[in-house]
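We examine the record.

___
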Amino acid sequence: MEVNDKRLIEDFLPIREISRESAREKSIRQGHISTLHLWWARRPLVACRAAVYASLVPAPKEKNGRGPKSAFIQRLCKYPSDPSVIKEAIKHIYSAHAERLSKELGKEVTAKDIEEGRAEKPKILDMFAGGGSIPLEALRLGCDAYAIELNPVAHIIELATLVYPQKYGKKLVDEVEKWGRWVIEKAKEELGDLYKPIPDPKGYGKLTPVAYLWT
């Protein structure tokens, strides 16, 4: 390996643009992974994606190479993600990793070798994984992800985020929907009379209360 193996994250990142997109992502309340279970240390997915990508690709050799890299990272760090940009990012990561492996092993390793399983993928370890945002983005970017967490609640969140969807696939989705509806119907049977619809203050029909504040 070369002594100077400077990564992109050590050189620069378009922080302002990443922060702006992270703030927009944090405002999303439906369909986002953060709604799976409340966790106080949720990290924006786009920021984690930027950190993972920039840790695995080399810094530009010339300063005028920052512009194209900045533009690409801004396209990469969007929510929801663009599959075509994700594929391009994986190519960048595998190419950089192949070059690194070639130097370490003393033989040629290509990005195609990594893609087809003939060479190992980059490994990402998060020792304080929390809600699992960093390992999730590492998986999205084609890496082998490892997550460590001592808190049992966070560990369950990580399993539901990183392991179960890959292990059970659509069957899990169907089961969650089935039993979710069952819980809702049972709750309505026992508690429905306590949560009768109320008039919408804006005049759009009726609203179903979800909680009462007892003062």
Q: What stands out?
A: DSSP finds nine helices and four strands in the chain. Residues 46 and 81 are 8 Å apart (CA to CA).
